[in-house]
Amino acid sequence: MDADTTCPPPEFSPASIGEHLRRHMPVTARWAYFDHAAVSPLPSLTRTAMQQYVDEAAEVGDVAWPAWAQKLASARHLSGQLVGAHVEEIALIPNTTYGINIVAEAFPWREGENVVVPNNEFPSNLLPWRNLQRRGVEVRQVVVPQDGRIDADLLRPAIDAKTRLVSLSWVGFASGFRVDLATIAELVHEVPGRYLMVDAIQGLGPFRMHVHQLGIDFLAADGHKWMLGPEGAGMLFIRRQLLDHLRPIGLGWHSLAASSFDPQQTQLKTDASRFEGGSHPMATMIGWEASLRLLLQCRAQAADSPLSRRVLDLVDLLADRLTSVGFRVDLPPEAHRSGIVPIDWPGTNGAVLSLARKALLANDIVTSVRGGRLRISVHAYNNSEDIARLVETLVDFRQRHHAT
Predict the structure, then answer these.
(1) 307 exposed, middle or buried (CB, 10 Å; 0-12, 13-18, 19+)?
(2) What residues form DSSP beta bridges with 365?
(3) Burial of 251 by CB count in 10 Å (0-12 exposed, 13-18 middle, 19+ buried)?
(4) Domain at 14-34+304-403, CATH class
(5) Which fold has domain 61-297?
(6) Cα 151 to Cα 160: distance, rounded to the nearest angstrom
(7) Residue 51 carries which DSSP code?
(8) Shortest CA distance to 287 belongs to which of 60, 69, 51, 65?
(9) Distance, CA of 351 to CA of 370 (rounded, Å)
């Protein structure tokens, strides 16, 4: 039976939040799951919400549509809460790629202007900007050092009078480096008419985000990683002063101001939902809404989020245990850490790392290989027993591999 998620945790310490969240993650019955930088397993509350939708869709069809629409409205409200945005600044989107493309294509570019992007970005935050070269927009890629460090000093030389937008990831998908967005935003906004776009998918959930306090203009993230949601549901934030700055694209019936199917109607919504266009993927949006409620119940939106403190405590524990037995742990400086822990050890290469991942999987431990290292993604519901299993299995693999 699914755990009851209606009751808040008795206290909000990092440890108690971790235990509370763990009770709602069925995956923990078997797996030590360290792959949230790839795809999240679903909480029990999310599974229940999606199963209820499927049952209703099969048994009553669109008679249940008004209730589904209320869940969409709740998802919009909760995602705004999570990032400190006004509800009219949130568009519901199927994935991060979709949101970045909306901003890239809707922005009022002029030939000869440029966009600045780090060269280690995930393809979803590079290809949409490269595609603008057909419109005469220059794409300036900033070379990022091996450790993934990105700061204002690194970006500044690439920015000039024709830079209109800087786009970067909050957390590097391979390095785990968490960018100081406030200082980047300050640099970007030194000149009026220059804007900051953030791909927040690798940080949003465990780490607190407040778009207005940080000075972010656009943000995209979908929920299937650290927000504990299913694939196919996420958010696009557009600062409300910029809603009319973007040209309308991706238009459909859902973009219209009035709830009418009149094909001659032209008045668009005045909020960010004008970019949603057509029907939503109801099952995934309803599931994501449940995941958002669970995260906010765990105070993900708090200035001193116990989720982030729990994640960083576990990252420290994992790093200490791995280094004590001879593994190389490549963590960023403390202020820039995330839930991503890249590791390797002497004698590793791509083939060895792939074998190590398979050995872990055979022992019900889930990780990934990215950027030439084993990537371990720690969430707040992991615990010391999960970490012990991981370390013991890696030590055993290393010994057996060296023996052969």
Answers:
(1) buried
(2) 32
(3) middle
(4) alpha beta
(5) Aspartate Aminotransferase; domain 2 (3.40.640)
(6) 16
(7) H
(8) 51
(9) 12
The residue ranges of every structural domain in the chain are: 14-34+304-403, 61-297
How many other CB atoms are there within 10 angstroms of residue 345's CB atom? 20
Instruction: Quote the pLDDT of residue 217.
Output: 98
- The C-alpha atoms of residue 225 and residue 221 are separated, in whole angstroms, by 9
What CA–CA distances, in Å, run from 294 to 75, 224, 288, 308, 386? 12, 14, 10, 15, 22
Q: Is the pTM of this model over 0.70?
A: yes
Residue 235's alpha-carbon distances to 52, 101, 120, 258, in angstroms, are 23, 13, 23, 23
Predicted local confidence at residue 1, as pLDDT: 32
Structure tokens, 222: 């979908």
Tell me the three state secondary structure of residue 90. strand
How far apart CA 27 and CA 331 sit, in angstroms, is 27
Q: How many angstroms separate the CA atoms of 158 and 115, rounded? A: 9
The single-letter code of the amino acid at 41 is P
**Mean pLDDT for the chain overall:** 94
Mean pLDDT of 209-236: 98
If we measure between CA atoms, which residue out of 164, 145, 165 comes closest to residue 154?
145
Residue located via tokens 């991942």: 357
The total number of residues written for the chain in this structure: 404
Cβ partners under 8 Å of residue 105, min gap 6: 128, 249
Closest of 358, 361, 318, 321 to residue 337, by C-alpha: 318
Is residue 108 exposed (0-12), middle (13-18) or buried (19+ Cβ within 10 Å)? exposed
